[in-house]
Amino acid sequence: MKNIFDLAKSNPIFKGIDCSDFKNILDSLQASIFSYNKGDVIMLAGKPRRFGIVLSGTVRVTKEDIDGNLVILADIPAPGIFNEVCVAAGLDYCPHTAYALENCEVVLIDYGNITASHTADSRFQALLLENMLASVANKAVILDQRVEILSKHTIRKKLLCFLELQGRGAKKFTIPYNREEMARYICVDRSALSHELSKMRDEGLIRFQRNEFEIM
Amino acid sequence: MKNIFDLAKSNPIFKGIDCSDFKNILDSLQASIFSYNKGDVIMLAGKPRRFGIVLSGTVRVTKEDIDGNLVILADIPAPGIFNEVCVAAGLDYCPHTAYALENCEVVLIDYGNITASHTADSRFQALLLENMLASVANKAVILDQRVEILSKHTIRKKLLCFLELQGRGAKKFTIPYNREEMARYICVDRSALSHELSKMRDEGLIRFQRNEFEIM
DNA sequence: CTCCAAATGTTGTTATTACAACAGACTTTC
DNA sequence: GAAAGTCTGTTGTAATAACAACATTTGGAG
After folding, report:
1. Total of domains in chain A
2. Which label site among A140, B4, B61, B197 has the fewest CB atoms less than 10 Å from its CB?
3. Is strand D in 7 Å reach of the CB of A198?
């Protein structure tokens, strides 16, 4: 088992921060490390105050959508962070719930403690904020790409857009989703997606075998 | 005509910063104020280095989508900022173009100059980062809401979700879009949207008159 | 190897949407 | 206040997707 410091060091939120400073930082942020068993609730819907840093295991974030369905928003394996968008946006209410998908260790940090008005150790304040900013900005970019996909009116156009983005310029690439997950990501019916993929193959637009795709 | 300092003060990126410090900050960030005439290009697609602060006028951000269509991403009137997501995410390439929709004054700041590794005046560094973080996080929240709308499979569900979010809990509210813009936002055909709205009214789900809506 | 379960592909039917074309209402301008 | 232009609503048709039900393939486990 790796120790806490090694686990934390690999987290993007601590990028650029020295291992030896880690303990000071946690102290100055009044942050503690929590252990959760599979299924334990880590955060409930409400006014967001803290964000979480996943040291080990996986955290699942869900929410109830407008129709009352429980939607899985994300699975955050270590090293990852969650709830940082909601606290940074200063939302009054965040409908998300986070719980341990498997046993995990998590650092919870009060956002107020890394904020400019906070007077504690400021040596790392800017660094932490910068890392958080990078993380949030990346999420915004991903969301923006998804909006671009979803804005297309046909499954074919959604697929072409999705595959372009997945391939990142390359003509051959492997995607990290099965058909079911892919369909949910681009918000279309799974069988309709399979059907469209087949048609596109027949028309010579793409080739594929399971998760390996090639754009012609 | 308001002076530059008043214009800047109202910008969310400078929230919490005193008027009297503004000049120091601009110096320390090596930032200058640029004036553009209507139609002038402010930023081209490429590796993003700088983000913009709109002091007066309006900046339009566009991009070419995957099919080659020119898409209007946003109109940013003063006091607003643009390109901050791309620089903060550290993208290698950003396909956005920004130009002056009307005559405008803009501060352009090199993101590297407010970054933790930058050694200049750090009194305001954390404050600027925090404000940027709030701005980017807000954009992420907006994008997330749009994904939720677009993930629905029928126009009716898209509309109900859109109206819920627009109303923010209130039963009666006014929306800032006409039908055309509304249709583009939720990515459906305008006439189909009008049609669906009428059906929903006939079924007693909603009432509306132009931009004033009421959820029953 | 055989059986099983999961993933993927196929087909047909029904529901929904895009698109086009037009009608009516509302605004603006002269 | 008439005319022009814009915005919104209506209708019909063709295209597309959802859904359901089933077939086939794949990858393991015994």
Report:
1. 2
2. B4
3. no
